Amino acid sequence: MATNVVRRCQRDDLMKQRVLIVEDEFLIALDLGATVEGIGMQVAGLANNREQALRLAPSADIAFVDVNLADGRTGPDLGRRLAEEHGLAVVFMTGNPETVAGGVKGAVGVVQKPVMPSLVEQLLKYLAARRVGRFAVVPAQMTVFA
Questions:
Q1: d(CA 22, CA 49)
Q2: How do residues 86-135 score in pLDDT, each as one tens digit?
Q3: How far, in Å, CA of 121 to CA of 98, rounded?
Q4: Are the C-beta atoms of 79 and 65 separated by less than 8 Å?
Q5: In angstroms, rounded to a whole number, what is the distance separating the alpha carbons of residues 41 and 33?
Q6: CA gyration radius for the chain?
Q7: Are the C-beta atoms of 32 and 137 separated by less than 8 Å?
Q8: CB 138: neighbour CB atoms within 10 A?
Q9: For strand 109-112 and strand 143-144, is the pairing parallel, antiparallel, or unpaired?
Q10: Is 43 helix (H, G, I), strand (E, B) or coil?
């Protein structure tokens, strides 16, 4: 019984993670949000540019960030700031992963769009576990930054 309580507490810690979605394509952002909520996590907000994302950052733990946003190719710098200044676990979701292939300081990694819901779920479980200091398997489709 004690093992079940510990597992439930660990699962609850994982599910308390709040996800910021930074994406300039509204339908993609909504789809990501539905996937996040579908696995039981909370969406901290949707942003389509750097200013909105930085305003929402204090209420988030994890961020999915596109490279090209409504205000231009601001995603890489934004991802760095979200990780370094706000402590978010950042993964880039982009159709052009080569634009961040060299890595972005503080960010975890990058996945190439389109991103299927099953990969979003794997990413969220990995990032949430990583944030609370638990071991998790890196999703095969994610390129991890050093």
A1: 7
A2: 999 999 999 999 999 899 999 999 999 999 999 999 999 999 999 988 99
A3: 23
A4: yes
A5: 9
A6: 15
A7: no
A8: 14
A9: antiparallel
A10: strand
Rounded distance, CA 112 to CA 96, Å?
A: 7
Question: Which is more confidently placed, 43 or 10?
Answer: 43
CA 132 to each of CA 5, 35, 89, 118, 145: distance values in angstroms, whole numbers, following the listed order: 17, 21, 11, 22, 19
DSSP H or E run through 53: helix 50-56
Q: Enter the DSSP assignment of 102.
A: T
CA 91 to chain centre: 5
Per-residue pLDDT band for 75 (boundaries 50, 70, 90) equals: very high
Indicate the pTM of the whole model: 0.90
If one counts every other C-beta atom within 10 angstroms of the C-beta of residue 30, the result is 14
**Kind of pairing, strands 62-65 and 109-112?**
unpaired
Q: Report the DSSP pairing between strands 18-22 and 109-112.
A: unpaired
